[in-house]
């Protein structure tokens, strides 16, 4: 069943190469870092922007997931797409992140993931393979999102 779900996700992404962790982004000090540093962990990559209203709901959930599952190998990585870093800073002052935040103001990483809306999340297994993706964040589906993570953490 898991293999079928993985295949369906990859087909849904389209004919282009599937999203991967082989990208560089910026940290809070504007230094280049690689998403590949998270290989070996289950990685929840979330793309967000300061103007994104549903992102304000997803951050508390991501904080909770980070707190509950970090020790089991979960890495939550939120990638901001604002071109003005002050907008991201203001958002984070209001809605703190207790997980990894990275920045991609050029949007090249987001384009390679072929985003369809905000927020968009992508879940990678410990081998760095994309296994699930979501467009939007729906609080009534939060338990389902969590179960996806728990299943991968058990593998």
Automatic annotation (TrEMBL):
Annotated InterPro entries: Redoxin, Thioredoxin-like_sf, Thioredoxin_domain, Thioredoxin_ResA/DsbE_sf
SUPFAM superfamilies linked: Thioredoxin-like (SSF52833)
Record keywords: Signal
GO molecular function: oxidoreductase activity
Residues of the Thioredoxin domain: 12-155
Highest taxon of source: Bacteria
Signal peptide: 1-17
PANTHER family in the cross-refs: CHROMOSOME UNDETERMINED SCAFFOLD_47, WHOLE GENOME SHOTGUN SEQUENCE (PTHR42852:SF18), THIOL:DISULFIDE INTERCHANGE PROTEIN DSBE (PTHR42852)
Protein name: Redoxin domain protein
Organism expressing this protein natively: Shewanella putrefaciens (strain 200)
């Amino acid at each position: 069943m898991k293999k079928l779900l993985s295949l369906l996700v990859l087909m849904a992404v389209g004919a282009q190469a599937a999203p991967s962790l082989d990208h560089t982004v910026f940290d809070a000090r504007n230094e280049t870092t690689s998403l590949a540093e998270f290989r070996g962990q289950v990685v929840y990559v979330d793309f967000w922007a300061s103007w994104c209203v549903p992102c304000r709901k997803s951050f508390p959930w991501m904080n909770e997931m980070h707190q509950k599952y970090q020790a089991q190998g979960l890495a939550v990585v939120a990638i901001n797409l604002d071109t003005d870093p002050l907008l991201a800073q203001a958002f984070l002052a209001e809605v703190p992140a207790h997980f990894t935040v990275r920045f991609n103001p050029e949007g090249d990483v987001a384009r390679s993931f072929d985003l369809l809306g905000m927020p968009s999340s992508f879940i990678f297994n410990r081998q760095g393979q994309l296994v699930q993706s979501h467009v939007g964040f729906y609080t009534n589906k939060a338990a389902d999102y969590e179960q996806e993570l728990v299943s991968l953490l058990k593998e």
